[in-house]
Each structure stands twice: as C-alpha cells, then as structure tokens.
Design goal:
Blueprint lengths: L1 H5 L12 H10 L2 H4 L5 H9 L16 H21 L3 E5 L5 H10 L2 E6 L2 H14 L2 H23 L6 E3 L4 H12 L12 E3 L8 H29 L20 H21 L2 E5 L8 H4 L6 E9 L1 H12 L3 E9 L25 H6 L5 H7 L3 H5 L6 H16 L20 H11 L9 H11 L3 H31 L4 E8 L10 E7 L5
Parallel strand pairs: 1-2, 1-6, 2-5, 6-7
Antiparallel strand pairs: 3-4, 7-9, 8-9
Helix pairs in contact: 4-5, 5-6, 8-10, 15-20, 17-19
Length: 526
C-alpha cells in the first residue's frame, strides 16, 4: 500500500533510502499491473463477428522489423474497427512516410488519407508508394530463385504421410480462390500446408526426394504464379503495367475477342483515377482543424495515429469527440517530452489548448508533470530489462556539455538542439566543438585543454549518472500511465462514446510506446 511504499524515502530528508522498495512501487503503479487495459485478443474477438481475417502481403517485405511489427498489428485492428462500424474511409494523422496508410489501402482496400505537417514526409510518402507498386517484381524474382532450394528443403523435412495429419488445399478451395481473385479480392495461400505431427517420423530417402522434386516442379511453378497474381490483386489497379503470360498475334483474334479486350481496356482506364486508395496530404493538425477543408469527400470514417508526436495525440482525440463524421479512433502517442502542459509555467493562457492534462479531474487538481518527468516517460524499461542498456557515454557527454555552456557561455536555455552529434563525433573534444557550432556559440575561445579539464573533472561521476538514469527508467512506466489514463478519462467524460479503452498493441521491446487509446462512438451519433 501507499504507506509501505512511502518508507522508500527518508521521512526527514525525503531522500531515497530503499531502492528495492522504490522499484517495487514503480512496478505496482505501472499500466501492466493496474489491470485497466483491455487485452488485444478480446478486442479483436469482439470486432470480428462473422468476418474472416484478410490474408495477403507481409509488411516485413518492405519495412524494418520494428515498423513491420507495428503496421501489421495495428492495421489488423483498424480493419476490424472499420468493418465493425461499417466504414471504408480512414484518416491517418501524422502519417509520416505512409507506412501504415499504404498498408491499410493495399492490404485491406480502405480509402486512406494520410495527413502530415511535413511536406518532405508527404513527398517521401508519394515516392515510397510509387516504389511499393513495383514490389511484386522483386517478390516474383526472389520466389523463382529460391523455388528449387525451398522445394528440396521442404521435401527433406516432410514426414511419412501415414504418420501425420496434414491439412491440404483441396481442388474446391483453389477453385473458390481463383473465383475470388477474379472478383478483385485478396487471396494468398501459404505455399506450405499446415501440418499437425502425430509423432516423429523419418525423412524420405534421397531417391524419393528427387522424384518428388521432378513431379512437383510444375505444381510449384503454378503456385508461384498464383501468388504473384494475388500480389497484383493487393496493389492498386494502376500499380503495375498490363502484362500477359502469353502473347497472341492480333491478326489471329476474332472480332468478338478484339471488342471484348477493347472494352476491358477502356474500363481499366476509366477506373485508373479511382484506383489509388491512399492520398498523402500536407497540413498542420490542431484541435480546431476542420477536416472538411482538407478532405473534400469526407464521409463517415475513423481516425488513426501511429506514434503521433506530443500534442498531436491529444488533438486527435479532441477532433474525434468533436466531429460527428468520425466514428472511431485508434491512437498510439509518443514524444511525451513535447507535450504542452497547462500548469507547468503558471502562465494564464485561457485560449490555448494544452496537451496535458486533458480530463477535468486532473485539471481541477492543477496537475503538472514537468519536462524532466515527461522526458523520463519516454525511456524504455523493457529494452533495458533485456540488456539494451542506456547510452551512458553519450548521456555523460551531454551532461558535461551543459556544464560547459552554462559556465563558459552563461547560457541556461536555448531553442536550438544538439541532436545526434555523439554518433558523428570521434572524441569528446570533437563532440563539444560540433555541438557548440549547432548552438551557434563561438568555440574559438575554448581551447582543447579546457574541454578536457571538464571531462576529467566529472569522469569519476559517470557511474553516478548511470545509476540516476536507471532510476529514471524504473519510474518511466508510472509517468506514462498518468498521461495515458488522463487521455482515457477524457474519453470517459464524453457523452457520445459507446466504448473506450487502453490496449497494449505492440511488443514493448520492439516498440516501447506500445499502448493505444481506442474509442467507438454510439451508433446513433451522426
């Protein structure tokens, strides 16, 4: 309880005297321990209804491991919410380079507007989307190169058929799949049937394996062709050039076939303008933003945000509650240190919309975190727990640099940032000089010997700095839970919300900011 945890600090000096108890208290008040989150599996099950999950391209084909994990998990959830609400339009706030937006449009055929304040991000999204349209070529080439080696490996690993239960793809399923493909739906079946092993079995002999390869090559080639066609179905209609698996002499075509092909060509051209389901837009989003001014064909939709930065996460929720067209929201925030706080500077700004606090409960209490606490909330406890330690040396460089600019230049606050200077620096001296240039401070009056004197003066305190930062890491989940529960309470205060909750979407080691704020409006809201 609170009384037990309070003994972690000295009653008189208020200094930390029991680190173990401090760590237990931090764990107790973390989001994973409070029992306020809704399991992702429960949400997906409730949204699923009679629909079946889509199958198609995997995002790890064209994203790094972290982004692939985030996009795959979140897109499945967004599609489930969209289907549940009966909507086809999605607005991706802070869309960046369009990873989530493009995947939602290609994989789930949702019409996505990706809005980002950076024109370079929007341009990058356009270029990236263009490159994605060529993805099938690489997929096809890679598949052909690895076909024989994959077939051999599978044959060697295949158990005796009499000793396994194997779920095979029967002819009827293939016929249905081809039929669905012709209707423009996404069908991509696994190359390997899923098998349930009854017991361990000896592999086939080399002779049997080679015979299987000879007889199975044609079927594998056919399967690969079907997979490539399925990839084409995933992509927008104007994503690839028209092609045919065989070439015909136009003179040999009958008139009826010529007319049919001409009509098909005309229909394809007519639909080209409508085939692009992803639209990157450049605009700065605030709580007062009128989406109708940005999106001319705004209809019933949902808002999403994958790692919306600072106040953007809060503004996403405010827009959601204010606009009747937006039926649902799924927002994962980040960059808590960039949040604006109403009670941080004690300045009266009645017209400003603040990032924290959002709910009336914390507003009435005048609650304030402060920048240092918000910076701590950005740390990744789970990564540290698995051995991905904090960059102690770069933190030490940064701390000593701050002493230098305060004592030598008299600067205590600056709007400029050092950025990722450490990784580009060959030594502490190089780091200081690069940083001073970024801060637009004259480094000519600071000799190398003076810089190294500061380094030697504080070098013995590096372990102390590491211990301090580890305490900040332990406390990080407690500060994050305050920010996230503030957003959830804000939604709970609204009258038009049917359901709202916090859901852990991602593996926190892969993606530390892993919690989504989700809400659905009442069906009657319009």
């Amino acid at each position: 309880d609170d009384d037990m945890f309070s003994s972690a600090f000295c009653e008189n000096s208020e200094k930390l005297i029991n680190v173990h108890l401090f760590a237990l208290a931090a764990k107790y008040y973390s989001l994973s321990n409070l029992g306020v989150c809704t399991p992702l599996e429960d949400v997906l099950e409730a949204l699923k209804g009679d629909s079946e999950g889509a199958t198609g391209i995997k995002p790890d084909e064209f994203m790094n491991n972290k982004k692939s994990h985030e996009v795959q998990v979140m897109s499945e959830l967004v599609d489930g919410i969209a289907n549940y609400c009966g909507i086809k339009q999605v607005i991706d706030i802070g869309s960046g380079k369009g990873y989530l937006s493009s995947f939602l449009s290609m994989q789930y055929k949702l019409k996505v507007y990706g809005i980002d304040s950076s024109s370079s991000n929007t341009n990058g999204a356009h270029e990236r989307n263009r490159k994605l349209k060529k993805h099938w070529r690489a997929y096809q080439s890679r598949g052909r190169e690895n076909l024989k080696s994959q077939s051999l490996e599978k044959a060697n690993d295949r158990p005796v058929e009499s000793e396994i239960k194997c779920k095979t793809i029967n002819e009827e399923l293939l016929i249905n799949a081809n039929s669905l493909q012709n209707q423009g739906q996404v069908i991509i079946q696994d190359v390997v049937p899923s098998c349930v092993f009854a017991e361990k079995a000896a592999p086939k002999t080399n002779t049997e394996t080679e015979a299987d390869l000879v007889t199975g090559t044609q079927s594998h080639e056919t399967k690969l062709s079907e997979e490539v066609l399925a990839i084409l179905n995933v992509l927008p209609a104007d994503a690839v050039e028209n092609f045919s698996s065989s070439h015909y002499d136009c003179g040999e075509l009958c008139e009826e076939e010529k007319v049919r092909r001409k009509m098909t060509s005309l229909k394809t051209k007519a639909k080209k303008s409508e085939s692009n389901l992803y639209f990157p837009l450049t605009s700065c989003i605030t709580a007062e933003t009128e989406l109708n001014d940005i999106i001319t064909d705004l209809e019933d939709c949902m808002m999403v945000g994958l790692h919306t930065c600072g106040d953007l996460a809060a503004n996403t929720l405010r827009i959601f509650t204010a606009k009747p067209e937006i039926k649902a929201v799924c927002s994962v925030g980040c960059c808590y240190h960039l949040l604006s706080e109403q009670f941080e500077n004690q300045e009266e700004c009645h017209d400003q919309v603040w990032g924290f606090p959002m709910c009336q409960y914390l507003k009435d209490k005048g609650w304030c975190c402060g920048r240092n606490a918000r910076m701590s909330a950005c740390l990744a406890l789970e990564r540290v727990a698995v051995g991905q330690m904090l960059p102690t040396e770069s933190l030490f460089y940064r701390a000593v640099l701050q002493v230098i600019i305060e004592e030598i230049y008299g600067v205590t606050k600056s709007d400029r940032h050092v950025g990722k200077t450490f990784s580009k620096s060959s030594s502490f001296i190089d780091y200081v000089r690069r940083s001073l240039k970024k801060l637009e401070l004259d480094d000519s009056k600071l000799p190398d010997s003076c810089i190294m004197d500061y380094y030697e003066k504080y070098k013995h305190r590096m372990n102390e700095l590491e211990a301090f930062n580890m305490l900040k890491v332990v406390l990080a989940p407690c500060i994050e839970v305050l920010i996230l529960l503030d957003r959830l309470c804000y939604l709970k205060e609204q009258e038009n919300i049917a359901w709202s909750g916090l859901v852990k979407l991602f593996d926190p080691v892969k993606s530390p900011r892993c919690y989504a704020v989700i809400a659905l409006k009442n069906q009657s809201c319009s």
